[in-house]
Specification:
The protein has two helices and 14 strands. It is mostly beta strands and 157 residues long. The chain starts with a helix and ends with a strand.
């Protein structure tokens, strides 16, 4: 009789040998930033549709961190630190960020003394066009301005 741990180790080895690890196929080092391309994206507990969904995301453009690559699947981390697997068709390479804990001020220039344009609530997602000196140029629903990087989680590198 084969022990459960030996069976799981054999299954993991067979999976790696049979399909090859995607890290060898991918030319992009992990971790890297991505965002959700769909407004209905399922996170799964493993890299296949055979695995159950553990979470359904309804926010298009939500930033995620890709932490592992396996064939057409990416292990991602969401803004709350939850990790799971998504198919590549649900992700895009667009730089986005989400407002973290408190209200974030969007200003017309990257300065604390610049004119206040809007106040962004926690959970607001926007597209980034660059970050430097602690500020990020961000677009939210067609409105552009600058937000302090410390108020955001996402593609800030």
């Amino acid at each position: 009789m084969i022990s459960r741990s030996a069976l799981m180790a054999f299954a993991a080895l067979a999976l790696c040998v049979g399909t090859g690890r995607a890290e060898a196929q991918s030319d992009r080092p992990t971790p890297y930033w991505a965002s959700l391309s769909k407004g209905d994206a399922r996170m799964r507990v493993g890299p296949s549709t055979d695995y159950p969904a553990s979470w359904i995301y309804r926010q298009r453009d939500l930033p995620v961190k890709v932490v592992e690559v396996y064939t057409n699947w990416r292990k991602i981390e969401d803004p709350d630190g939850t990790q799971g697997w998504m198919h590549v068709r649900l992700l895009k390479d667009e730089a986005t960020a989400i407002v973290r804990d408190g209200i974030a001020d969007m200003r017309d220039r990257p300065s604390d003394t610049a004119r206040l344009l809007f106040r962004l609530e926690p959970g607001v997602v926007g597209r980034l066009s660059g970050c430097s000196d602690g500020w990020c140029a961000m677009e939210v629903n067609g409105r552009r301005g600058y937000v302090e990087a410390t108020s955001l989680w996402g593609a800030l590198d």
